[in-house]
Specification:
Layout: E1 3-5, E2 7-9, E3 12-14, E4 21-26, E5 31-37, H1 41-59, H2 63-79, H3 81-92, H4 96-113, H5 116-119, E6 124-129, E7 132-140, E8 143-147, H6 155-166, E9 170-174, H7 181-193, E10 200-202, H8 207-215, E11 221-225, H9 228-240, E12 244-248, E13 253-257, H10 263-275, E14 285-291, H11 295-308, H12 326-342, E15 345-348, E16 367-370, H13 377-380, E17 387-393, H14 396-405, E18 408-409, E19 411-415, H15 419-428, E20 433-436, E21 452-453, E22 456-457, H16 464-470, E23 472-480
Parallel strand pairs: 1-5, 8-9, 8-11, 9-10, 11-12, 13-14, 13-19, 14-17, 16-17, 19-20
Antiparallel strand pairs: 2-3, 4-5, 6-7, 7-23, 12-22, 15-16, 18-21
Helix pairs in contact: 1-8, 2-4, 2-7, 3-4, 3-7, 4-6, 10-11
This protein binds nicotinamide-adenine-dinucleotide.
Length: about 500
């Protein structure tokens, strides 16, 4: 019988009692590896209760001690990241090197959060008014919720919780029910690093758990990452219940290739960004916009490379793994059918792939469409699979118009050797993260990650200084130490003297 995966509440595994179990599968084999107990409203209360009870003491723990725990967590993670990568591959399906890559990008946020004493430093002004000093501080919010998607079981939670914890908050993480084990592994690591019980909790669940967190009076903020409709819902519900919310949504990322670009480089990068993680990345390139008469050459070069990719079990050194579930696979093949019916030219067909894997995993091979138009569903919808669409335009302006008309604004890239064109693109494209000859421009931990338009609801991007601001309240203290010469009554509005 498959094992059951628990919650992690108040520093220990807690076997769920809801009786509401869902299967967790190994996408490369199709095998059910575990059953996950989805949280009931009472279990949401337990997890939030643990985070609430732990908050006062953790908030008042000195920065030095909090930072020591952060460094210990970083060291353990660095030493044992192979274990975490293997867990990610077994539930998500991405190839091991890719899983290791996501752990490393998450680790960078832990490293950034190790600098929290500096990041929390306020300002001090002496003698702002005669005998009056002013200083500012930033203080933690309280228990915060992090709700994450399936596609980055370690990195996306790590965009948030290292900063939240280092700043003195306590956390309830609700991972995706498709990939729960990475969060539990990280919870055990926190314990080993010396984090007090209750500061980091993992609540497994679905909409019931999400709604419980969004409406719970003790949850101060919600950091959500997932598809756009749910992100919008989370933002609206969370803010209605008085919470600070950052909700990162879906994407449709374009790669604009100008006629002067190095086409081999562009084709390599289209492959990496289109088919890495089987296209299940919010920063994946799904639309290549070819400008001018390079389109035929570019399509040929991408197709040659796509044909050579090895699809299969991520533990076997393959280039590309499976989709996360059978439903995801069927959704993606449905889009390929729709693209064909709509008249796009199917250059490489991933439906007929023979994967290097045992069992019956959820595979679709790399797929390439040419002559795609902006009306087709393979262009308008976020497919979230290994399907790359090539759109042909005559001019740079037409390409930018397509990108700026798209409702999403997460990432985009331009491929060119013309510095002026690249600079102009960076200036006028309405997207949050831009690559210049870089296809997946995920910002470093000390910058902030976030898209525009339907790719993000709320004001704060993830990590970097915006993350520190999100997880703290600002406070300004104006002080005067008694000096009899400044006494007296004055009902006027305070002014500088
Ligand atoms: P999803 O929206 O299905 O799920 C995200 C989270 O919401 C999960 O924890 C899930 O349990 C929960 N959820 C699902 N349905 C819900 C409902 N009806 N009510 C409340 N909560 C619900 O997303 P996913 O399929 O796990 O992840 C893929 C999506 O995430 C893609 O759209 C991708 O672009 C997006 N994503 C965006 C970013 C970004 O930075 N913008 C990063 C990674 C993933």
């Amino acid at each position: 019988m498959a094992k059951t995966i628990d919650h992690w509440i108040d520093g220990a595994a807690f076997a769920g009692t809801s009786g509401n179990l869902v299967d967790v599968t190994d996408p490369a084999t199709g095998e059910v590896t575990a059953q996950l107990a989805l949280a009931s409203p009472a279990e949401v209360d337990m997890a939030v209760g643990a985070a609430t009870a732990a908050f006062g003491r953790w908030r008042d723990t000195s920065l030095t001690k909090r930072t020591q725990v952060m460094f210990a967590f970083r060291e353990l993670l660095n030493d044992r990241k192979d274990e975490l990568a293997a867990i990610i591959t077994s539930e998500h399906g991405k190839v091991l090197s890719d899983a290791l890559g996501e752990v490393s990008r998450g680790q960078e946020v832990v490293e950034f959060a190790c600098g929290m004493p500096h990041l929390l430093k306020g300002a001090f002004t002496e003698n702002a008014s005669t005998g009056i000093d002013v200083h500012s501080v930033r203080q933690p919010l309280g228990p915060v919720a992090v709700i994450s998607p399936f596609n980055f079981p370690a990195m996306v939670p790590m965009w948030f919780f290292p900063i939240a914890i280092a700043a003195g908050n306590t956390v309830v993480l609700k991972p995706s029910e498709k990939v729960p084990s990475a969060a539990l592994w990280m919870a055990e690591l926190w314990k080993e690093a010396g984090l007090p019980d209750g500061v980091f909790n993992v609540l497994n669940g679905d909409k019931v758990a999400v709604d419980g967190l969004l409406t719970h009076p003790d949850i101060a903020s919600v950091s959500f990452v997932g598809s756009t409709p749910i992100a919008r819902y989370v933002y609206e519900t969370g803010t209605t219940h008085g919470k600070r919310v950052q909700a990162l949504g879906g994407a449709k990322n374009h790669m604009l290739v100008l006629p002067d670009a190095d086409l081999d480089l562009a084709a390599d990068q289209a492959i990496n960004a289109g088919f890495g993680s089987a296209g299940e990345r919010c920063m994946a390139i799904s639309a290549v916009v070819a400008v001018g008469d390079i389109a035929d050459d570019l399509v040929t070069k991408i197709a040659e490379r796509a044909d050579k990719l090895r699809t299969g079990d991520g533990r076997r050194g393959c280039d590309m793994g499976p989709l996360v579930t059978a439903q995801s696979r069927d959704r993606v093949t449905g889009y390929i059918d729709a693209g064909e019916s709509a008249g796009a030219k199917l250059v490489v067909d991933g439906r007929s792939v023979t994967p290097d894997a045992d069992g019956s995993g959820f595979f679709v091979g790399p797929t390439l469409f040419d002559n795609v138009t902006v009306q087709m569903s393979i262009y308008t919808d976020e497919i979230f699979g290994p399907v790359l669409s090539v759109l042909r335009v005559d001019t740079y302006e037409e390409g930018v118009e397509i990108i700026n008309s798209n409702p999403y604004g997460n990432g985009t890239a331009i491929f060119t050797n013309d510095g002026g064109a690249a600079r102009r693109f960076g200036n006028e494209v309405q997207v949050g993260m831009i690559g210049i000859n870089v296809p997946v421009p995920v910002p470093m931990a000390y910058f902030s990650f976030g898209g525009w338009k339907s790719s993000l609801f709320g004001d704060a991007h993830a990590h970097g200084t915006e993350g520190v601001k999100f997880f703290t309240h600002g406070k300004v203290v104006t002080s005067r130490w008694l000096d009899p010469s400044h006494g007296g009554i004055n009902l006027g509005f305070p002014q500088n003297q």
